[in-house]
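As practice, study what follows.
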Amino acid sequence: MTIVSLPGSSGYLDVSNRKVVSYFSNPYVLGLTFVAGIGGLLFGYDTGVISGALLYIKDEFPEVNQSSFLQETIVSMALVGAMIGAAAGGWINDSYGRKRATLSADVVFILGSLVMAAALDPYILILGRLLVGLGVGVASVTAPVYIAEASPSEIRGGLVSTNVLMITGGQFLSYLVNLAFTEIPGTWRWMLGVAGVPAAIQFVLMLFLPESPRWLYMKKDKAEAVAVLAKIYDPYRLEEEIDQLATALEEERLRMQAVSYLDVFRKKEIRLAFFAGAGLQAFQQFTGINTVMYYSPTIVQMAGFKSNQLALLLSLIVALTNAMGTIVGIYLIDHFGRKKLALTSLSGVIVSLILLAVAFILESSNSNSINVGGYGWIAVIGLALYIAFFAPGMGPVPWTVNSEIYPESYRGMCGGMSATVNWISNLIVAQSFLSLVEAVGTGATFLILAGIAVMAFVFVVVFVPETKGLSFEEMERIWKEKAWGNGSGKDALLEARS
């Protein structure tokens, strides 16, 4: 029998009877995760479906077919909405809770889907894309935080990564839906409008789920929070979790200050955490993932496979590889660790991007068009390897790390800000890839992405700590130590200044 004393507790616990926590050990937590993860499904579906829908939108609206600017605006307006939604999502999460944030995102997403499906001209369609983007932006902030706060630390990484699996699953689903509705009247309206169905399902299911227990304890109702925690933890672990929440709440009361956006940059430990989290989000996009997801059919055709059907089929395989790789990541992230997984992932991404670059550079040096039997297949292999390495690591790690590295008072705010960085980076990549290819060539473009991936590797080594298995309180202490060292005197000075 193992007996331990709990800090802040008047009693002792026998921890030898603790249950082993695994991904499937608590159906209740798994249910919370999948319902919250529908927000990720909407995220993924929206990013993938427009590539197919745009072909039919151009057929219906001649002005869209004649204007590249209108086409780009229809695609990118959802990203603009997502940036705004992510920025506002942090405040909504902290002020009104994770549950209400999710419900509000669903309502806006459903409204946007209906507006798109009924659009009589391209400008109403653009408005619908903006509304859908707002919903996606709020959901991209809320889902990882909600899941993290309802998860035991031992499996938090895998559960948060489930949200990323839902994103990649949504992308794969969008390709299937595009194929399914190609022969149905009103093709693109069905493609875009059907996205409201999972949002409606999430809204209904979310009504029956609780608020995040951590948010409840810190902001609203301790008794309700304990009732939710009792469904997540066994009795031996429950008291420990309550003690940690009580300590965190007492620290918040001692601070007795309003949280502001300026604090993120003014307070050294918060600044360091945000720099690590936002940097991961930026590098996730600038290493090229949405270049591949948005333009994989184009890249395949650049490699010499001119058939539209073959390009779409290979793109569908890319999306499936992305989803399967995320499943691998769910297992590895809590066994291998966040930092090691990101570094391994980036190593493979660098090699894959160099392979892609070499294939296209060799092709461009050849006076004839690319040899599909040679360089073309090298490019396709490079593309497949890129997804296989990216999906398990740099896919889930940025979202997981951002859900766990911030103190309670700043979690929603910093999560929203870092998600906004992700969406801004996403927009830059989506809008610049084809122009960059035209300016410097395909091979040079992939070499630039490889160089950015090298920078990302160095960034992770230097600035990102390992968060595997740590409680939120332990994570907060890590940032204080990085900011002020291990001396208690500096901690006391920090408290006095704040």
Notes: The first helix runs from residue 27 to 36.
